[in-house]
Amino acid sequence: MIKVSVIVTSYNNAHNLERCLNSLLNQNYDKRFIDSEIVVVDSGSTDGSIEILIKYKDRIKIILKPKEFSFFTRLSPAQARNIGAQNSKGEILIFTDSDCVLPLDWVREMVASFQKYQVDCIIGNREPDIGEGLGTFVRRYDFILYSNKFIISEPLIINKNTLQKKHPLCFISRK
What we know:
The protein has 175 residues and is of the alpha/beta class. It folds into two domains: 2-103, Spore Coat Polysaccharide Biosynthesis Protein SpsA, Chain A; 117-175, no CATH class. It has helices at residues 14-25, 49-55, 77-86, 106-116, 133-150, 160-164, and strands spanning 2-10, 34-42, 61-64, 92-97. The protein has a four-stranded parallel sheet with strand order 3-2-1-4. Helix 2 (49-55) links the parallel strand 2 (34-42) and strand 3 (61-64). The two termini are 28 Å apart.
């Protein structure tokens, strides 16, 4: 059995958080072969995200911004991901953000990529969020520009063989 930890970073995303969590909780994979946990690291939300997370407390692991980071208004995405990784049990760590709604086969496809190739890292694509305000508009516009230029049909395989051969590192994703 493969143990998978899905680590979700979250900050002030109450408007989309439940959609994200439900997309993860409803993943389609064979539970005889994949044992998954969902670890949500909240970076100090002030918008009602915590109340939403509490509704899911029996099905997800919730980590609130640790006290040693109290001098920061919020955690950076990297800090939140590292805290999530330190508090996870998976052999495979899969990272996403709370503004993402994942396809039903997402976890299964990620695990399949690790099984099919000798791989240490997989990069995937995402759909733009459905947030509110100017920041969301800018992210959507940036996503459209980025995705139209850089979506490539095959996943990038990063492992010790490709790194030792000094292949140029470019991030690509499946569409």
